[in-house]
């Protein structure tokens, strides 16, 4: 009887232990979007996206503070639907992609915010400058994809001052600065749960 108790206890705890184990999720770039918006001539808003991005999420639902997020954006993939403007944004006046081809984010803190929200704080590196930012994040429940894979969605927003990252180019016109300083960043991300590797026979 004594020998059976540990085995029974292990079986009883198995579901809880499985839930407690951290899971790794990979960004599905084909169903994700990294967008930004900035004022133009004070009176309108220019929006753009980065079309090439990658990332990883390690989610620890038993202890959310142990979760981590890392993401990389290819700045050369910037798209504002105006080729001449995109070329200017890639130039040394702005992102200077020849020197700084990527934007990266690495989390330093993940915490709960409300019922379905998260606060994800981390280091954003852009144009060779690293600054702390906090993302307001909402998460979807898990769903099964068409191939049986497990997926989740995340929507995140934050605001940054581009001058904090050395992006200081501007021109003054009658209405004011040609380009606003505050940039709103919006992320719509879909991630796929990594499958555990099976031992080869």
TrEMBL record:
UniProt-listed InterPro entries: Lipid/polyisoprenoid-bd_YceI, TTHA0802/YceI-like_sf
Asked whether the UniProt record includes Signal among its keywords, one would answer: yes
Domain Lipid/polyisoprenoid-binding YceI-like stretches:
24-192
This protein's UniProt keywords: Signal
> SMART domains, from UniProt?
YceI
Region forming the signal peptide:
1-20
Q: Does the keyword Signal apply?
A: yes
Question: Which PANTHER family does the record associate with it?
Answer: PROTEIN YCEI
Q: What is this protein called?
A: YceI family protein
